[in-house]
Amino acid sequence: MSVGRAAAPHAERPLSLYHLLEPEVLADPYPLYHRLRTEDPVHWDPFLHVWVVTRYRDVVRVLRDFSADRTPTPGQLTAMGLSELNPIAQVMVKQMLFMDAPAHTRIRGLAAHAFTPARVTILRQHIREITDRLLEAVLPAGRMDVIADLAEPLPCIVTAEMLGVPVEDHRRLKGWSQDFAEMLGNFQHNPDRVPRILRAVEGMTDYFRSAMRDQERRPHEGLVNTLMNAEIDGDRLTEEEVIANCIVTMVGGQETTTNLIGNGVLSLLRHPAELERLRADLSLVPSAVEELLRYESPSQHTGRLAPADVELGGRRIRARQAVIAVMGAANRDPERFPVRI
Ligand code: HEM
């Protein structure tokens, strides 16, 4: 008789966010989030060496008040013996996602030129046309693969249009985005994947540099053009800042939107009464999208650093200690979102 090691029951397993590395926990992380929220809502994770925050009110405080300036600089990586990652860090430290005010306010203000209401109206019309085209292509078959036919191509094509680069490049942009996204919203870093991520950073940097040269010769609408020309009180983005923020905007919009569509359709199929309610009253669509974003958040967690020694949920967090704010758990906190029976 062979003696197998049965998996320990949930309650006996060490409380850690690392269980998200297990496919079955990733597929349904909510029992783990429930344990964290009820047993230790501001939890020192001894395996990840970070604080894990899961209650809605605490997550909001972390997102509002803690430091987003969390990506190691090339100098810090070199000191840790990880200088091979420097080309990635050089790009990340210039991305608004990893900045606090006033550096964040500056880049965000300049980038906002690309998202004026007039530009968003034009983009919205384009998005409708692209969606219609993708759906018309599958209508004759009477069936579709939601991810392959809609959720993946839609954000890729929209992103290329938004950037103002040739739409034919959208598959290349998607490949790079997928590789780069491994550095974001993720605490599992596979050293074997580093060469691929380095190639993606190099590829995107060259691509956007040549898109900028193209804009100089032949200016045309899009984020590349807007970021190149945005100016506030004589202040403009440098070439490296334009490239870094084109990359973060491109990457930020892809996987998230694919997952919103995929998770959203799956959630509706799992709740046929809600799907019927929505079909019967399309004015519910905007609030349904908000609710689906909450219920199956495409972005489940993000990182911050404590800005100083602070107290959160009765725990003392030291300055510069890392904190993971688990939005996926906060968004199901019954204290904020009472469960309807
Ligand atoms: C369902 C779709 C989306 C979700 C769930 C989502 C989620 C998020 C989250 C959670 C953050 C904050 C991360 C943090 O502070 O650590 C963020 C930031 C950002 N996202 Fe998205 N995102 C979505 C769509 C998009 C799209 C379409 C774009 C591009 C057009 C985009 C570009 C960005 C950028 C540039 C930032 C950084 C903003 C800043 O630092 O001020 N995202 N996103």
List keywords for this structure.
Cytochrome p450; single chain; 6 strands; 54% helix; alpha+beta; binds protoporphyrin IX containing FE; two-stranded antiparallel ribbon; 341 residues; Uridine Diphospho-n-acetylenolpyruvylglucosamine Reductase, domain 2
CATH superfamily of the largest domain: Cytochrome P450
Distance between the termini: 46 Å
What's the order of the H and E elements? HHEEHHHHHHHHHHHHHEEEEH
Supply the CATH class of the largest domain. Mainly Alpha
For the residues shown, what is the average pLDDT? 92
Note the total helix count.
Answer: 16
* Largest sheet properties: 4 strands, mixed
Helix proportion: 40-55%
Global structural class? alpha+beta
Overall shape: it is globular
Bound molecules: protoporphyrin IX containing FE
Find the count of extended strands (DSSP E, 2+ residues).
6
CA radius of gyration = 22 Å
Q: Kindly report the spatial arrangement of strands forming the biggest sheet.
A: 1-2-6-3
List low-pLDDT spans. 1-6
* Share of β-strand residues: 5-15%
- As for the number of domains, it is 2
CATH architecture of the largest domain: Orthogonal Bundle
CATH topology of the largest domain: Cytochrome p450
